[in-house]
Write a structure and sequence with these properties.
By secondary structure, this protein is mainly alpha-helical. It is 71% helix and 0% strand. It contains five helices and no strands. Helix 1 packs across helix 2, helix 2 runs antiparallel to helix 4 and helix 2 packs parallel to helix 5. The radius of gyration is 14 Å and the shape is elongated. The two termini are 13 Å apart.
Length: 97
């Protein structure tokens, strides 16, 4: 599984810039949606035709990369009141995929 590491600069920005942290949190939820779409085959943010044309191997690779990214991000200590339920569910489902 891929390993993602935040640079010191990225980490500092996450800690000190509330807007950047919120944007990253929103991006994490989009990534979680993408995982669920690839697993279910039902489009919400990915065009259905594009989703249908993806090979199973490509979907597995994408899910694996998104899960690794989300695991890295959710484990950080700079989060405050963000609800990680959707992200954690996507991680669990992605690992089972």
């Amino acid at each position: 599984m891929p390993n993602y590491v935040l640079s010191e600069d990225e980490r500092n920005k996450m800690v000190n810039d509330v807007d950047f942290r919120q944007t990253t949190y929103n991006d994490m939820n989009i990534s979680a949606s993408g995982i669920q779409e690839m697993i279910s085959g039902n489009s919400a943010t990915i065009p259905q035709q594009e989703l249908d044309e993806m090979s199973d191997d490509f979907k597995h690779d994408c899910v694996e990369h998104h899960v690794a990214y989300l695991e890295t991000m959710v484990s950080q200590d700079f989060w405050t009141t963000e609800d990680m339920t959707t992200v954690n569910n996507a991680i669990t489902d992605g690992k089972a995929y």
